């Protein structure tokens, strides 16, 4: 059973959680099932594709805090599992909109540090800032919709 | 090098020129307005206008009728006219607002002016001859928050307003008592007072920021605005209200100004005027920084250069905190100096550092290698 596996312990058990099946939350629920697809590629070689996928599906419009937290966990996994040498290549592969979303996750990641996470996130921050400038950071602050 | 005038240490909140650019009205972040006159090669303080109780938030100088209008946080606006003794005399304008006024603009024909306010409305004021006073009419719907910036369409009727509800709106400010029915434009044909002709959002998916400045191009077909999310946008009424937004890498802009039908200047917290170009398809792109200061902006200064600059400036400490741009703090306003919106050769910027700089495109051309100016 995949739900027994150690990596999935931090995700919500959807059978316990009663969700109103509105159009919006259905799209957001994908986040609960997607890890099955993304985590495989973490252990694969295509980390950059994994990053693109998580950013493309970021639940920005969702009002469901649990979905957002679940998404944050997955993004953190991807960001922290990549080697420092790969960061620059990954950042260059993203477009401006995705860089804005990535910067939002970097700051969100700073809010809840874990062992060694801040150092790695600072490396990400430096590389994203080099490409997207201060405008990217300004948009983290001015955007009403948080990740 | 741009010509720069220092007006002390107080930030310049607003500035306006008279018709031949020999006089300048500025407000140094206080309830006063200072009028400077260029005489014998230098700028001399000619008069201080003291009528407002709170900070002056906007100044505009009508070039042909030579009247100054000022608006303030004290919910008032005054129209100043020069008497025979060359003294400026104020006339109170009843704006009928219960919050601070934020910005003011004379219309192109100078028969009326518009004031934006925190009362979520725009006061369009005109002079009523029968009662010998200035009367205001309100544009309220559907503005939901403070109006931060205004600009008039060249037809003297349409008015663009940016607001802190993340929207830019084009309204009709047609006052039937003082003018003829306007002919139709690319923004619409029926223009009763207060009708919203178009609304643009400075936010996508709830992102976005306050609109800091809005500007009509010289033809009136295009409108540009800058927002606090470091974005600059251009909408074109002649192309079906098509909007192009670019989210820049810079700090947010606070002011923007068209200098030709295809080029616009934006300046703000980055302390440096930036040039943007709009191509035939309506796409905006960054064309260059107009502040070609010699000092390097990047933090990658070598150790050798650091000690050289220490030695040259006779300093003993290594912290050189001055910026690599002319302005040492945010630029708050940009005004046309020479030319018009279709073809400007000089523009002025004023900032929080108390500096007013006049930028000349002819001088900048040689400094900006690789950029061609028509």
UniProtKB/TrEMBL annotation, chain A:
Where is it found, in Gene Ontology cellular component terms?
Answer: Arp2/3 protein complex
Q: What is its main location?
A: cytoplasm
Protein name according to UniProt: Actin-related protein 2/3 complex subunit 5
InterPro entries in the record, alphabetically? Answer: ARPC5, ARPC5_sf
Q: What is the lineage of its organism?
A: Eukaryota, Metazoa, Ecdysozoa, Arthropoda, Crustacea
**Signal sequence annotation:** none
Q: Write out the similarity annotation.
A: Belongs to the ARPC5 family.
Task: Name the Pfam families for this protein.
Answer: P16-Arc (PF04699)
Compartments reported by the entry: Cytoplasm, Cytoskeleton
What keywords are assigned to this protein? Cytoplasm, Cytoskeleton
Q: What does this protein do?
A: Functions as a component of the Arp2/3 complex which is involved in regulation of actin polymerization and together with an activating nucleation-promoting factor (NPF) mediates the formation of branched actin networks.
Could you tell me the Gene Ontology terms of the biological process aspect for this record? Arp2/3 complex-mediated actin nucleation; regulation of actin filament polymerization
TrEMBL record, chain B:
Among Gene3D superfamilies, the record links this protein to: YVTN repeat-like/Quinoprotein amine dehydrogenase
| Sorted UniProt keywords | Actin-binding, Cytoplasm, Cytoskeleton, Nucleus, Repeat, WD repeat
Keyword Cytoplasm found: yes
Q: Where in the cell is it found?
A: Cytoplasm, Cytoskeleton; Nucleus
Q: Which InterPro entries match?
A: ARPC1, WD40/YVTN_repeat-like_dom_sf, WD40_repeat_dom_sf, WD40_rpt
GO process annotations (BP): Arp2/3 complex-mediated actin nucleation
**One annotated Gene Ontology cellular component of this protein:** nucleus
> Which GO molecular function entries does the Swiss-Prot or TrEMBL record give?
actin filament binding
Among Pfam families, the record links this protein to:
WD40
Signal peptide (from-to): none
Q: Which domain of life is it from?
A: Eukaryota
Nucleus as a keyword?
yes
Renumbered ranges of WD repeats: 49-80
Family statement: Belongs to the WD repeat ARPC1 family.
**Function according to Swiss-Prot or TrEMBL:** Functions as component of the Arp2/3 complex which is involved in regulation of actin polymerization and together with an activating nucleation-promoting factor (NPF) mediates the formation of branched actin networks.
Tell me what this protein is called.
Actin-related protein 2/3 complex subunit
Q: Which gene encodes it?
A: EOG090X05RK
């Amino acid at each position: 059973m995949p739900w027994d596996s150690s990596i999935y312990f931090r995700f919500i058990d959807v059978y316990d959680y009663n969700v109103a099946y509105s159009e919006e939350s259905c799209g957001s629920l994908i986040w609960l099932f997607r890890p099955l697809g993304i985590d495989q590629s973490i252990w694969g070689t295509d980390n950059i594709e994994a990053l693109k996928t998580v950013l493309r599906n970021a639940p920005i419009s969702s009002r469901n805090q649990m979905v957002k937290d679940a998404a944050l966990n997955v993004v953190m996994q991807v960001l922290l599992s990549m080697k420092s040498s790969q960061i620059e290549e990954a950042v260059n592969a993203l477009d401006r909109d995705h860089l804005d979303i990535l910067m939002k996750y970097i700051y969100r990641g700073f809010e809840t540090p874990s062992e060694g996470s801040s150092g790695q996130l600072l490396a990400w921050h430096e590389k994203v800032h080099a490409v997207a400038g201060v405008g990217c950071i300004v948009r983290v602050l001015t955007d009403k919709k948080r990740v | 090098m741009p010509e720069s005038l220092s007006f002390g240490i107080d930030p310049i909140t607003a500035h306006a020129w008279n018709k031949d650019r020999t006089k300048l009205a500025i407000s140094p972040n206080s309830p006063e307005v200072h009028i400077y006159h260029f005489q014998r090669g230098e700028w001399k303080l000619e008069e201080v206008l003291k009528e407002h109780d709170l900070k002056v938030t906007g100044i505009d100088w009508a070039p042909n009728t030579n009247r100054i209008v000022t608006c303030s946080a004290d919910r008032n606006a005054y129209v100043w006219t020069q008497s025979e003794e060359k003294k400026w005399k104020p006339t109170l304008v009843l704006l009928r607002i219960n919050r601070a006024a934020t910005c003011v603009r004379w219309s192109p024909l100078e028969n009326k002016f518009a004031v934006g306010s925190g009362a979520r409305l725009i006061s369009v004021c005109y002079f009523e001859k029968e009662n010998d006073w200035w009367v205001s009419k309100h544009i309220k719907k559907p503005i939901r928050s403070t109006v931060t910036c205004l600009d008039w369409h060249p037809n003297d009727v349409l008015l663009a307003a940016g607001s802190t509800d993340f929207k830019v709106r084009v309204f009709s400010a047609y006052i039937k008592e003082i003018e003829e029915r306007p002919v139709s434009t690319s923004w619409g044909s029926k223009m009763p007072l207060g009708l919203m002709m178009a609304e643009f959002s400075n936010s996508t998916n709830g992102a976005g920021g306050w609109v800091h400045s809005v500007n009509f191009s010289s033809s009136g077909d295009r409108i540009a605005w800058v927002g606090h999310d470091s974005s600059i946008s251009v909408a074109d009424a002649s192309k079906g209200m098509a909007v192009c937004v670019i989210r820049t890498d810079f700090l947010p802009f606070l002011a923007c100004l068209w200098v030709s039908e295809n080029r616009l200047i934006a300046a703000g917290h980055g302390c440096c005027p930036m040039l943007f170009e709009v191509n035939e398809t309506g796409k905006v792109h960054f064309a260059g920084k107009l502040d070609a200061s010699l000092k390097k902006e990047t933090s990658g200064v070598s150790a050798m250069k650091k000690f050289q600059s220490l030695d040259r400036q006779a300093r003993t400490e290594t912290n050189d905190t001055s910026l690599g741009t002319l302005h040492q703090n945010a630029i708050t306003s940009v005004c046309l100096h020479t030319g018009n919106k279709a073809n400007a050769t000089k523009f002025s910027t004023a900032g929080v550092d108390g500096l007013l700089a006049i930028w000349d495109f002819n001088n900048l051309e040689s400094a900006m290698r690789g950029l061609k100016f028509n």
